[in-house]
Design a protein that fits this description.
The structure holds 2 protein chains of 2 kinds.
Chain A (H helix, E strand, L loop, with lengths): L1 H56 L11 H9 L4 E5 L2 E4 L1 E6 L3 E5 L10 E2 L4 E5 L2 E5 L11 E3 L4 H26 L8 H21 L7 H19 L13 H17 L3 H8 L8 H44 L5 H38 L4
Antiparallel strand pairs in A: 1-2, 3-4, 3-8, 5-6, 6-7
Helix pairs in contact in A: 1-8, 2-8, 3-5, 4-5, 4-9, 5-9, 6-8, 6-9, 8-9
Chain B lengths: L7 H136 L3 H17 L1
Classes of the chains: A mainly alpha, B mainly alpha.
InterPro entries (chain A): ATP_synth_F0_asu, ATP_synth_F0_asu_bact/mt, F0_ATP_A_sf
Main location (chain A): membrane
Subcellular location (chain A): Cell membrane; Membrane
Chain lengths: ~375, ~160
Protein backbone atom coordinates (compact mmCIF):
# COMPACT_ATOMS: atom_id res chain seq x y z
CA UNK A 1 0.00 0.00 0.00
CA UNK A 2 2.75 2.38 1.01
CA UNK A 3 4.60 1.64 -2.16
CA UNK A 4 1.47 2.22 -4.19
CA UNK A 5 0.89 5.61 -2.59
CA UNK A 6 4.45 6.68 -3.33
CA UNK A 7 4.02 5.56 -6.92
CA UNK A 8 0.78 7.45 -7.32
CA UNK A 9 2.29 10.63 -5.90
CA UNK A 10 5.31 10.23 -8.17
CA UNK A 11 3.09 9.81 -11.22
CA UNK A 12 1.02 12.79 -10.15
CA UNK A 13 4.11 14.92 -9.78
CA UNK A 14 5.32 13.89 -13.23
CA UNK A 15 1.90 14.62 -14.69
CA UNK A 16 1.75 18.05 -13.05
CA UNK A 17 5.25 18.91 -14.23
CA UNK A 18 4.50 17.92 -17.78
CA UNK A 19 1.13 19.55 -17.82
CA UNK A 20 2.81 22.82 -16.88
CA UNK A 21 5.44 22.28 -19.55
CA UNK A 22 2.86 21.44 -22.16
CA UNK A 23 0.78 24.42 -21.11
CA UNK A 24 3.84 26.59 -21.51
CA UNK A 25 4.56 25.15 -24.94
CA UNK A 26 0.96 25.40 -26.08
CA UNK A 27 0.82 29.05 -24.98
CA UNK A 28 3.70 29.63 -27.31
CA UNK A 29 1.87 27.79 -30.07
CA UNK A 30 -1.22 29.93 -29.52
CA UNK A 31 0.79 33.12 -29.60
CA UNK A 32 2.37 31.99 -32.81
CA UNK A 33 -0.89 30.90 -34.35
CA UNK A 34 -2.33 34.34 -33.61
CA UNK A 35 0.56 36.15 -35.21
CA UNK A 36 0.27 33.73 -38.12
CA UNK A 37 -3.40 34.39 -38.64
CA UNK A 38 -2.67 38.09 -38.35
CA UNK A 39 -0.12 37.88 -41.12
CA UNK A 40 -2.09 35.58 -43.39
CA UNK A 41 -4.46 38.18 -44.84
CA UNK A 42 -1.63 40.61 -45.46
CA UNK A 43 0.46 37.92 -47.13
CA UNK A 44 -2.39 36.64 -49.21
CA UNK A 45 -3.18 40.16 -50.28
CA UNK A 46 0.46 40.66 -51.18
CA UNK A 47 0.49 37.34 -53.03
CA UNK A 48 -2.67 38.21 -54.95
CA UNK A 49 -1.36 41.62 -55.91
CA UNK A 50 1.94 40.05 -56.90
CA UNK A 51 0.10 37.51 -59.04
CA UNK A 52 -1.98 40.27 -60.54
CA UNK A 53 1.16 42.28 -61.29
CA UNK A 54 2.94 39.30 -62.83
CA UNK A 55 -0.19 38.48 -64.76
CA UNK A 56 -0.17 42.00 -66.26
CA UNK A 57 3.51 42.22 -66.96
CA UNK A 58 3.98 38.63 -68.02
CA UNK A 59 7.47 37.22 -67.63
CA UNK A 60 9.11 40.56 -66.84
CA UNK A 61 8.65 40.08 -63.06
CA UNK A 62 9.52 36.36 -63.09
CA UNK A 63 13.17 36.81 -62.09
CA UNK A 64 12.38 38.38 -58.72
CA UNK A 65 10.07 36.34 -56.54
CA UNK A 66 8.27 38.03 -53.71
CA UNK A 67 9.11 36.32 -50.39
CA UNK A 68 6.02 35.20 -48.49
CA UNK A 69 6.95 33.75 -45.09
CA UNK A 70 3.55 32.23 -44.33
CA UNK A 71 3.40 30.42 -47.65
CA UNK A 72 6.96 29.18 -47.32
CA UNK A 73 6.48 27.98 -43.76
CA UNK A 74 3.15 26.32 -44.48
CA UNK A 75 4.65 24.64 -47.52
CA UNK A 76 7.49 23.30 -45.38
CA UNK A 77 5.38 21.90 -42.60
CA UNK A 78 2.67 20.55 -44.87
CA UNK A 79 2.83 17.34 -46.85
CA UNK A 80 4.00 17.42 -50.46
CA UNK A 81 4.10 15.30 -53.60
CA UNK A 82 7.75 16.36 -54.15
CA UNK A 83 10.73 16.10 -51.91
CA UNK A 84 12.26 19.53 -52.27
CA UNK A 85 16.07 19.57 -51.88
CA UNK A 86 17.24 23.05 -52.83
CA UNK A 87 16.44 25.76 -55.39
CA UNK A 88 14.56 24.05 -58.21
CA UNK A 89 15.98 20.61 -57.42
CA UNK A 90 13.46 18.18 -56.00
CA UNK A 91 12.77 14.48 -56.04
CA UNK A 92 9.49 13.37 -57.65
CA UNK A 93 7.48 10.91 -55.59
CA UNK A 94 4.99 8.29 -56.78
CA UNK A 95 1.36 9.30 -56.96
CA UNK A 96 -1.22 6.62 -56.23
CA UNK A 97 -4.86 7.56 -56.70
CA UNK A 98 -7.99 5.58 -56.03
CA UNK A 99 -10.69 6.92 -58.29
CA UNK A 100 -14.13 5.77 -59.31
CA UNK A 101 -12.59 4.37 -62.49
CA UNK A 102 -9.79 2.46 -60.77
CA UNK A 103 -6.29 2.86 -59.40
CA UNK A 104 -3.88 5.36 -61.00
CA UNK A 105 -0.14 5.11 -60.49
CA UNK A 106 2.34 7.65 -61.91
CA UNK A 107 5.26 9.86 -60.95
CA UNK A 108 4.63 13.34 -59.60
CA UNK A 109 7.31 14.56 -62.05
CA UNK A 110 4.53 14.61 -64.69
CA UNK A 111 2.99 17.63 -62.96
CA UNK A 112 6.15 19.72 -63.47
CA UNK A 113 5.61 21.45 -60.10
CA UNK A 114 1.94 21.96 -60.82
CA UNK A 115 2.50 23.74 -64.11
CA UNK A 116 1.16 20.93 -66.29
CA UNK A 117 -1.76 18.56 -66.13
CA UNK A 118 -1.29 14.81 -66.31
CA UNK A 119 -3.62 12.74 -68.44
CA UNK A 120 -4.10 9.47 -66.62
CA UNK A 121 -5.91 6.29 -67.61
CA UNK A 122 -9.22 7.41 -66.12
CA UNK A 123 -9.05 11.17 -65.64
CA UNK A 124 -6.91 14.21 -66.19
CA UNK A 125 -5.21 15.40 -63.00
CA UNK A 126 -3.87 18.75 -61.90
CA UNK A 127 -1.74 19.65 -58.87
CA UNK A 128 -3.39 22.59 -57.04
CA UNK A 129 -1.60 23.75 -53.87
CA UNK A 130 0.10 20.34 -53.71
CA UNK A 131 -3.25 18.56 -53.86
CA UNK A 132 -4.16 16.27 -56.74
CA UNK A 133 -7.46 17.37 -58.32
CA UNK A 134 -9.48 15.95 -61.20
CA UNK A 135 -9.76 18.24 -64.21
CA UNK A 136 -13.14 18.17 -65.88
CA UNK A 137 -13.90 18.26 -69.60
CA UNK A 138 -14.17 22.05 -69.54
CA UNK A 139 -10.58 22.47 -68.35
CA UNK A 140 -11.66 23.49 -64.85
CA UNK A 141 -10.99 21.62 -61.59
CA UNK A 142 -13.90 19.29 -60.88
CA UNK A 143 -14.40 19.46 -57.08
CA UNK A 144 -17.21 16.90 -57.13
CA UNK A 145 -15.06 14.09 -58.55
CA UNK A 146 -14.09 11.73 -55.76
CA UNK A 147 -10.42 10.85 -55.78
CA UNK A 148 -8.66 9.32 -52.81
CA UNK A 149 -4.99 10.19 -52.65
CA UNK A 150 -2.86 7.27 -51.43
CA UNK A 151 0.36 8.75 -52.80
CA UNK A 152 3.76 8.13 -51.33
CA UNK A 153 4.11 11.74 -50.26
CA UNK A 154 7.10 13.37 -48.60
CA UNK A 155 5.83 12.46 -45.14
CA UNK A 156 5.17 8.86 -46.13
CA UNK A 157 8.63 8.56 -47.67
CA UNK A 158 10.26 10.16 -44.61
CA UNK A 159 8.30 7.78 -42.39
CA UNK A 160 9.49 4.81 -44.45
CA UNK A 161 13.08 6.02 -44.03
CA UNK A 162 12.55 6.35 -40.28
CA UNK A 163 11.05 2.86 -40.14
CA UNK A 164 13.98 1.50 -42.11
CA UNK A 165 16.43 3.14 -39.70
CA UNK A 166 14.50 1.85 -36.68
CA UNK A 167 14.45 -1.70 -38.04
CA UNK A 168 18.14 -1.52 -38.89
CA UNK A 169 19.10 -0.20 -35.44
CA UNK A 170 16.97 -2.50 -33.33
CA UNK A 171 17.44 -5.69 -35.29
CA UNK A 172 21.20 -5.16 -35.13
CA UNK A 173 20.87 -4.55 -31.40
CA UNK A 174 18.78 -7.71 -31.06
CA UNK A 175 21.49 -9.61 -32.92
CA UNK A 176 24.20 -8.32 -30.63
CA UNK A 177 22.07 -9.47 -27.68
CA UNK A 178 21.92 -12.91 -29.26
CA UNK A 179 25.66 -12.88 -29.91
CA UNK A 180 26.72 -11.62 -26.50
CA UNK A 181 24.45 -13.71 -24.29
CA UNK A 182 24.74 -12.75 -20.63
CA UNK A 183 27.50 -10.23 -21.30
CA UNK A 184 27.50 -6.48 -20.71
CA UNK A 185 26.09 -4.34 -23.55
CA UNK A 186 28.43 -2.79 -26.07
CA UNK A 187 28.26 0.01 -28.65
CA UNK A 188 24.78 0.82 -29.95
CA UNK A 189 23.42 -1.77 -27.57
CA UNK A 190 24.71 0.08 -24.51
CA UNK A 191 23.30 3.35 -25.88
CA UNK A 192 19.76 2.04 -26.26
CA UNK A 193 19.62 -0.39 -23.36
CA UNK A 194 19.20 2.34 -20.71
CA UNK A 195 16.40 3.86 -22.81
CA UNK A 196 14.64 0.50 -23.12
CA UNK A 197 15.13 -0.11 -19.39
CA UNK A 198 13.82 3.39 -18.67
CA UNK A 199 10.65 2.66 -20.65
CA UNK A 200 10.29 -0.65 -18.85
CA UNK A 201 11.15 0.37 -15.28
CA UNK A 202 9.98 3.98 -15.10
CA UNK A 203 7.13 4.09 -17.61
CA UNK A 204 5.56 0.66 -17.96
CA UNK A 205 6.08 -0.94 -14.53
CA UNK A 206 4.87 1.92 -12.29
CA UNK A 207 1.88 2.78 -14.47
CA UNK A 208 0.66 -0.61 -15.63
CA UNK A 209 1.74 -2.88 -12.80
CA UNK A 210 2.56 -6.55 -13.02
CA UNK A 211 0.84 -6.99 -16.43
CA UNK A 212 3.36 -4.63 -18.04
CA UNK A 213 5.17 -7.27 -20.13
CA UNK A 214 2.24 -7.65 -22.55
CA UNK A 215 2.34 -3.94 -23.48
CA UNK A 216 6.10 -3.50 -23.70
CA UNK A 217 6.36 -4.08 -27.50
CA UNK A 218 3.67 -1.46 -28.18
CA UNK A 219 5.14 1.10 -25.78
CA UNK A 220 8.68 0.63 -27.08
CA UNK A 221 7.54 0.79 -30.71
CA UNK A 222 5.52 3.96 -30.07
CA UNK A 223 8.41 5.59 -28.21
CA UNK A 224 11.09 4.86 -30.80
CA UNK A 225 8.79 5.49 -33.78
CA UNK A 226 7.95 8.98 -32.48
CA UNK A 227 11.51 9.64 -31.34
CA UNK A 228 13.14 8.68 -34.64
CA UNK A 229 10.59 10.61 -36.67
CA UNK A 230 11.01 13.65 -34.39
CA UNK A 231 14.80 13.51 -34.68
CA UNK A 232 14.75 12.98 -38.44
CA UNK A 233 12.37 15.94 -38.69
CA UNK A 234 15.00 18.13 -37.09
CA UNK A 235 17.57 17.31 -39.76
CA UNK A 236 17.14 19.99 -42.46
CA UNK A 237 18.63 17.96 -45.35
CA UNK A 238 17.44 14.98 -47.38
CA UNK A 239 16.67 11.98 -45.15
CA UNK A 240 15.04 14.33 -42.66
CA UNK A 241 13.28 17.62 -42.93
CA UNK A 242 9.77 16.24 -43.25
CA UNK A 243 7.35 17.25 -40.55
CA UNK A 244 6.15 13.68 -40.01
CA UNK A 245 5.20 13.75 -36.33
CA UNK A 246 3.86 17.28 -36.81
CA UNK A 247 1.21 15.94 -39.17
CA UNK A 248 -2.21 15.36 -37.69
CA UNK A 249 -2.72 12.21 -39.77
CA UNK A 250 0.23 10.45 -38.16
CA UNK A 251 -0.62 11.55 -34.64
CA UNK A 252 -4.21 10.53 -35.33
CA UNK A 253 -3.11 7.00 -36.18
CA UNK A 254 -0.87 6.80 -33.13
CA UNK A 255 -3.60 8.06 -30.81
CA UNK A 256 -6.10 5.70 -32.44
CA UNK A 257 -3.70 2.84 -31.73
CA UNK A 258 -3.63 3.84 -28.07
CA UNK A 259 -7.43 4.11 -28.01
CA UNK A 260 -7.72 0.57 -29.41
CA UNK A 261 -5.09 -0.92 -27.09
CA UNK A 262 -6.60 0.73 -24.00
CA UNK A 263 -10.19 -0.26 -24.74
CA UNK A 264 -9.39 -3.80 -25.90
CA UNK A 265 -7.59 -4.42 -22.63
CA UNK A 266 -10.07 -2.66 -20.36
CA UNK A 267 -11.24 -5.04 -17.62
CA UNK A 268 -14.68 -5.22 -15.99
CA UNK A 269 -13.76 -2.50 -13.47
CA UNK A 270 -12.87 -0.14 -16.31
CA UNK A 271 -16.17 -0.72 -18.09
CA UNK A 272 -18.12 -0.61 -14.83
CA UNK A 273 -16.52 2.76 -14.10
CA UNK A 274 -17.76 4.03 -17.47
CA UNK A 275 -21.29 2.57 -17.64
CA UNK A 276 -22.14 2.14 -13.94
CA UNK A 277 -20.27 4.98 -12.23
CA UNK A 278 -20.46 5.21 -8.47
CA UNK A 279 -22.90 8.17 -8.39
CA UNK A 280 -26.60 8.66 -7.51
CA UNK A 281 -28.79 7.02 -10.21
CA UNK A 282 -30.19 10.30 -11.57
CA UNK A 283 -26.65 11.38 -12.47
CA UNK A 284 -26.01 8.25 -14.54
CA UNK A 285 -27.05 9.63 -17.95
CA UNK A 286 -24.78 12.61 -17.45
CA UNK A 287 -21.86 10.63 -16.04
CA UNK A 288 -21.99 7.99 -18.78
CA UNK A 289 -21.77 10.73 -21.40
CA UNK A 290 -18.91 12.39 -19.51
CA UNK A 291 -17.06 9.08 -19.19
CA UNK A 292 -17.47 8.28 -22.89
CA UNK A 293 -16.22 11.74 -23.78
CA UNK A 294 -13.29 10.99 -21.44
CA UNK A 295 -12.49 7.79 -23.33
CA UNK A 296 -12.28 9.73 -26.60
CA UNK A 297 -10.66 12.87 -25.22
CA UNK A 298 -7.67 11.07 -23.73
CA UNK A 299 -6.25 9.86 -27.06
CA UNK A 300 -7.48 13.09 -28.69
CA UNK A 301 -5.26 15.05 -26.31
CA UNK A 302 -2.37 12.73 -27.23
CA UNK A 303 -2.97 13.42 -30.92
CA UNK A 304 -3.16 17.20 -30.57
CA UNK A 305 -0.26 17.46 -28.14
CA UNK A 306 2.26 15.70 -30.36
CA UNK A 307 1.01 17.43 -33.52
CA UNK A 308 1.02 20.91 -31.96
CA UNK A 309 4.39 20.57 -30.30
CA UNK A 310 6.21 19.33 -33.36
CA UNK A 311 4.50 21.73 -35.75
CA UNK A 312 5.14 24.67 -33.42
CA UNK A 313 8.83 23.80 -33.25
CA UNK A 314 9.11 23.62 -37.03
CA UNK A 315 7.19 26.89 -37.46
CA UNK A 316 9.42 28.72 -34.99
CA UNK A 317 12.64 27.50 -36.60
CA UNK A 318 11.37 28.36 -40.10
CA UNK A 319 10.14 31.79 -38.94
CA UNK A 320 13.51 32.62 -37.47
CA UNK A 321 15.17 31.62 -40.73
CA UNK A 322 12.55 33.63 -42.64
CA UNK A 323 13.59 36.75 -40.71
CA UNK A 324 16.72 36.91 -42.88
CA UNK A 325 14.61 37.02 -46.05
CA UNK A 326 11.98 39.35 -44.60
CA UNK A 327 14.61 41.95 -43.65
CA UNK A 328 16.52 41.18 -46.84
CA UNK A 329 19.80 41.70 -45.06
CA UNK A 330 22.65 39.48 -43.93
CA UNK A 331 23.09 41.56 -40.77
CA UNK A 332 20.16 39.83 -39.15
CA UNK A 333 21.59 36.40 -39.97
CA UNK A 334 23.77 35.98 -36.82
CA UNK A 335 20.78 36.75 -34.61
CA UNK A 336 18.58 34.42 -36.59
CA UNK A 337 21.13 31.62 -36.56
CA UNK A 338 21.74 32.04 -32.83
CA UNK A 339 18.01 31.78 -32.16
CA UNK A 340 17.67 28.84 -34.53
CA UNK A 341 20.47 27.02 -32.72
CA UNK A 342 18.73 27.68 -29.43
CA UNK A 343 15.42 26.45 -30.86
CA UNK A 344 17.03 23.38 -32.39
CA UNK A 345 18.49 22.42 -29.04
CA UNK A 346 15.12 22.99 -27.44
CA UNK A 347 13.51 20.91 -30.20
CA UNK A 348 16.00 18.14 -29.49
CA UNK A 349 14.72 18.12 -25.93
CA UNK A 350 11.12 18.31 -27.14
CA UNK A 351 11.74 15.38 -29.53
CA UNK A 352 12.65 13.17 -26.57
CA UNK A 353 10.07 14.74 -24.30
CA UNK A 354 7.13 14.27 -26.66
CA UNK A 355 8.08 10.67 -27.38
CA UNK A 356 8.33 10.12 -23.63
CA UNK A 357 5.03 11.89 -22.84
CA UNK A 358 3.15 9.96 -25.50
CA UNK A 359 4.54 6.69 -24.15
CA UNK A 360 3.99 7.65 -20.51
CA UNK A 361 0.39 8.70 -21.06
CA UNK A 362 -0.31 5.60 -23.14
CA UNK A 363 1.10 3.51 -20.28
CA UNK A 364 -0.99 5.50 -17.81
CA UNK A 365 -4.21 4.97 -19.79
CA UNK A 366 -3.45 1.26 -20.16
CA UNK A 367 -2.73 1.13 -16.44
CA UNK A 368 -6.10 2.74 -15.68
CA UNK A 369 -7.85 0.22 -17.93
CA UNK A 370 -6.20 -2.91 -16.51
CA UNK A 371 -6.09 -1.80 -12.86
CA UNK A 372 -7.62 -4.29 -10.43
CA UNK A 373 -9.87 -2.85 -7.71
CA UNK A 374 -10.19 -4.72 -4.45
CA UNK B 1 -7.87 24.17 -41.40
CA UNK B 2 -5.92 22.14 -43.90
CA UNK B 3 -3.21 21.68 -41.27
CA UNK B 4 -5.55 19.91 -38.84
CA UNK B 5 -7.37 17.75 -41.40
CA UNK B 6 -5.82 14.30 -41.53
CA UNK B 7 -5.31 13.22 -45.13
CA UNK B 8 -6.57 9.74 -45.97
CA UNK B 9 -3.34 8.73 -47.72
CA UNK B 10 -1.10 9.49 -44.80
CA UNK B 11 -3.49 7.85 -42.35
CA UNK B 12 -3.53 4.75 -44.53
CA UNK B 13 0.24 4.51 -44.96
CA UNK B 14 0.95 5.37 -41.32
CA UNK B 15 -1.52 2.76 -40.16
CA UNK B 16 -0.12 0.05 -42.41
CA UNK B 17 3.51 0.83 -41.74
CA UNK B 18 3.08 1.31 -38.01
CA UNK B 19 1.38 -2.07 -37.67
CA UNK B 20 4.12 -3.68 -39.80
CA UNK B 21 6.79 -1.98 -37.69
CA UNK B 22 5.09 -3.15 -34.50
CA UNK B 23 4.91 -6.74 -35.71
CA UNK B 24 8.46 -6.80 -37.09
CA UNK B 25 10.00 -5.15 -34.05
CA UNK B 26 8.03 -7.35 -31.69
CA UNK B 27 9.24 -10.50 -33.38
CA UNK B 28 12.80 -9.54 -34.30
CA UNK B 29 13.78 -6.87 -31.78
CA UNK B 30 11.76 -6.53 -28.58
CA UNK B 31 11.39 -10.23 -27.88
CA UNK B 32 15.12 -11.04 -28.05
CA UNK B 33 16.17 -7.75 -26.43
CA UNK B 34 13.75 -7.89 -23.50
CA UNK B 35 14.35 -11.61 -23.17
CA UNK B 36 18.11 -11.15 -23.04
CA UNK B 37 17.86 -8.29 -20.56
CA UNK B 38 15.51 -10.32 -18.37
CA UNK B 39 17.77 -13.35 -18.55
CA UNK B 40 20.83 -11.30 -17.71
CA UNK B 41 19.08 -9.66 -14.78
CA UNK B 42 18.07 -13.06 -13.50
CA UNK B 43 21.58 -14.44 -13.86
CA UNK B 44 22.97 -11.41 -12.01
CA UNK B 45 20.41 -11.87 -9.23
CA UNK B 46 21.24 -15.54 -9.09
CA UNK B 47 24.97 -14.82 -8.92
CA UNK B 48 24.43 -12.32 -6.12
CA UNK B 49 22.26 -14.77 -4.22
CA UNK B 50 24.87 -17.47 -4.69
CA UNK B 51 27.59 -15.14 -3.44
CA UNK B 52 25.46 -14.35 -0.40
CA UNK B 53 24.93 -18.05 0.23
CA UNK B 54 28.65 -18.72 -0.19
CA UNK B 55 29.39 -15.97 2.32
CA UNK B 56 27.00 -17.51 4.83
CA UNK B 57 28.47 -20.96 4.22
CA UNK B 58 31.96 -19.50 4.64
CA UNK B 59 31.13 -17.99 8.03
CA UNK B 60 29.53 -21.28 8.99
CA UNK B 61 32.65 -23.15 7.99
CA UNK B 62 34.87 -20.73 9.87
CA UNK B 63 32.74 -21.15 12.97
CA UNK B 64 32.91 -24.91 12.53
CA UNK B 65 36.67 -24.75 12.17
CA UNK B 66 36.90 -22.68 15.30
CA UNK B 67 34.79 -25.25 17.10
CA UNK B 68 36.92 -28.09 15.84
CA UNK B 69 40.07 -26.28 16.91
CA UNK B 70 38.65 -25.63 20.36
CA UNK B 71 37.60 -29.25 20.64
CA UNK B 72 41.02 -30.44 19.54
CA UNK B 73 42.71 -28.17 22.03
CA UNK B 74 40.45 -29.40 24.81
CA UNK B 75 41.14 -32.97 23.84
CA UNK B 76 44.87 -32.36 23.85
CA UNK B 77 44.64 -30.80 27.31
CA UNK B 78 42.64 -33.79 28.47
CA UNK B 79 45.21 -36.20 27.10
CA UNK B 80 48.05 -34.28 28.66
CA UNK B 81 46.29 -34.24 32.01
CA UNK B 82 45.63 -37.94 31.81
CA UNK B 83 49.23 -38.64 30.96
CA UNK B 84 50.36 -36.59 33.91
CA UNK B 85 48.09 -38.39 36.36
CA UNK B 86 49.20 -41.69 34.91
CA UNK B 87 52.82 -40.72 35.31
CA UNK B 88 52.22 -39.56 38.86
CA UNK B 89 50.43 -42.79 39.66
CA UNK B 90 53.25 -44.88 38.28
CA UNK B 91 55.84 -42.88 40.15
CA UNK B 92 53.96 -43.17 43.43
CA UNK B 93 53.47 -46.86 42.95
CA UNK B 94 57.16 -47.31 42.20
CA UNK B 95 58.12 -45.27 45.25
CA UNK B 96 55.81 -47.25 47.49
CA UNK B 97 57.07 -50.52 46.11
CA UNK B 98 60.65 -49.38 46.55
CA UNK B 99 59.94 -48.43 50.14
CA UNK B 100 58.32 -51.74 50.85
CA UNK B 101 61.18 -53.56 49.22
CA UNK B 102 63.69 -51.50 51.13
CA UNK B 103 61.91 -52.14 54.39
CA UNK B 104 61.91 -55.85 53.67
CA UNK B 105 65.60 -55.77 52.91
CA UNK B 106 66.31 -53.86 56.09
CA UNK B 107 64.32 -56.39 58.05
CA UNK B 108 66.24 -59.24 56.52
CA UNK B 109 69.48 -57.49 57.17
CA UNK B 110 68.49 -56.94 60.78
CA UNK B 111 67.62 -60.59 61.24
CA UNK B 112 70.87 -61.60 59.64
CA UNK B 113 72.78 -59.18 61.81
CA UNK B 114 70.98 -60.57 64.86
CA UNK B 115 71.82 -64.09 63.84
CA UNK B 116 75.42 -63.23 63.17
CA UNK B 117 75.57 -61.46 66.47
CA UNK B 118 74.15 -64.50 68.21
CA UNK B 119 76.62 -66.79 66.49
CA UNK B 120 79.43 -64.41 67.30
CA UNK B 121 78.34 -64.17 70.92
CA UNK B 122 78.05 -67.93 71.16
CA UNK B 123 81.51 -68.20 69.74
CA UNK B 124 82.78 -65.59 72.13
CA UNK B 125 81.08 -67.48 75.00
CA UNK B 126 82.72 -70.73 73.92
CA UNK B 127 86.05 -69.02 73.67
CA UNK B 128 85.54 -67.39 77.02
CA UNK B 129 84.48 -70.67 78.65
CA UNK B 130 87.37 -72.59 77.19
CA UNK B 131 89.71 -69.79 78.11
CA UNK B 132 88.31 -69.63 81.62
CA UNK B 133 88.55 -73.39 81.87
CA UNK B 134 92.14 -73.19 80.77
CA UNK B 135 92.77 -70.42 83.18
CA UNK B 136 90.99 -72.35 85.89
CA UNK B 137 92.98 -75.44 85.11
CA UNK B 138 96.16 -73.48 85.29
CA UNK B 139 95.07 -71.80 88.43
CA UNK B 140 93.97 -75.06 89.90
CA UNK B 141 97.14 -76.71 88.94
CA UNK B 142 99.09 -74.13 90.58
CA UNK B 143 96.92 -73.99 93.66
CA UNK B 144 96.52 -77.74 93.97
CA UNK B 145 100.15 -77.95 94.70
CA UNK B 146 99.24 -76.96 98.18
CA UNK B 147 96.87 -79.21 100.08
CA UNK B 148 95.22 -76.72 102.19
CA UNK B 149 94.50 -74.57 99.41
CA UNK B 150 92.88 -77.47 97.72
CA UNK B 151 90.60 -78.04 100.54
CA UNK B 152 89.66 -74.50 100.78
CA UNK B 153 88.82 -74.47 97.24
CA UNK B 154 86.67 -77.52 97.42
CA UNK B 155 84.95 -76.10 100.33
CA UNK B 156 84.37 -72.93 98.51
CA UNK B 157 83.01 -74.80 95.56
CA UNK B 158 80.72 -76.76 97.72
CA UNK B 159 79.48 -73.63 99.24
CA UNK B 160 78.66 -72.33 95.88
CA UNK B 161 76.92 -75.55 94.93
CA UNK B 162 74.87 -75.38 98.03
CA UNK B 163 73.89 -71.94 97.31
CA UNK B 164 72.84 -72.89 93.87
Amino acid sequence: MDCNRVLVSKVKKVIVAFTLLIAFLSVKVDAFAQSDSATVPVDSVVAKSAQAVSGEHGVAEHGKEKFEPTKVIMEHIADSHMWHFWGHTSMPLPVILYTAGGIEFFSSAHFHHGEEDYVGAHNTYRLVHDKVKVVGANGQVDETASVLDFSITKNVAAMFIAIFVILLVFISIANSYKKRVGKSPKGLQSFFEPVILFIRDDVAKPNIGHKYAKFMPYLLTVFFFILFNNLLGLVPIFPGGANVTGNIALTFVMAFGTLIIVNLNGNKYYWKHIFLPNVPFWLWPLMVVVEIVGVISKPFALMVRLFANMTAGHIIVLSLISLIFIFETLAIAPVSVAFVIFMDVLELLVAFLQAFIFTLLTALFIGMAVEEHH
Amino acid sequence: MELVTPSIGLVFWTGISFICLLILLRKFAWKPILGAIHEREQSIDEALNKAELAKIRMTELTAQNQDLMQQARAERDEILKEAKTLKDGILNEAKKQAQVEGAKLIEKAKIEIENQKKVALAEVKDQVSSLSLEIAERVLRTQLDDKTKQQALVANLLKDVELN
